[in-house]
């Protein structure tokens, strides 16, 4: 879910883009899922996260609530922070932000 | 005015809707409260499903949204009516509205969104949203009067 709050001028149409800000949804997860861009996921336990197709713009944020092991699976053959394999989040209560440039993932 | 827009990015946008009428009824139009940002390319499709089976689908484009508003502006929010070729006869039950796309690529400078609203004059929600992101995707359904069928 990628949510924007737009401040639209009076009327239903506009020749120019309205001012926008982002609203970050938060979801809790405890089993395999594919995250959506612009969302913060709070995880519980050990499981895998299947990354979506690359689309630059908004990060995917993951925060562990316990000492579970989260395995971040690539969507295809892209790299995660320069490494051509899955990425494992081992540390207790660790958090990561995943951004991409349309080609590879980066931990930010 | 402020709009809370759920952006069509890489996956479809879905909204469950429960229809409750005293009898079978015909739908004349389904209007999604859409936000168009810089007239995105591609084709969009509204599908209506029940138990994952397709009930109805119809495609539209941002050019059609602009034409419906009679505007040359590329930014707009509108309850865009999607009108089936023939009226759809339905019975009560839980349906799902799905907004998907083909040939469309999300970009921060050009995209389509579906607006979330807590207060919807036509529909009531059967849960309590804990924050605005849980508001339903706003929709209006036009029920045809039986007399004209």
Task: Estimate percent helicity of chain A.
Answer: under 10%
Strand % of chain A is 35-45%
CATH C-level label of chain B: Mainly Beta
**Count of the domains of chain A:** 1
Described by its quaternary structure, the protein is heterodimer
Class inferred from helices and paired strands of chain B? mainly beta
Described by strand count, sense and barrel closure, the largest sheet of chain B is: 6 strands, antiparallel
Question: How far apart lie the N and C ends of chain B?
Answer: 39 Å
What is the secondary structure topology, with strand pairs?
The complex is a heterodimer of chains A (108) and B (149).
Chain A: E1 3-7, E2 13-14, E3 19-23, E4 26-29, E5 40-43, E6 47-50, E7 60-64, E8 70-73, E9 87-89, E10 95-100, E11 105-107
Parallel strand pairs in A: 4-5, 5-7, 6-8
Antiparallel strand pairs in A: 1-3, 7-10, 8-9, 10-11
Chain B: E1 2-7, E2 13-19, E3 25-37, E4 43-50, E5 53-60, H1 62-69, E6 75-82, E7 88-90, E8 93-102, E9 111-116, E10 139-143
Antiparallel strand pairs in B: 1-9, 2-8, 3-6, 3-7, 3-9, 3-10, 4-5, 4-8
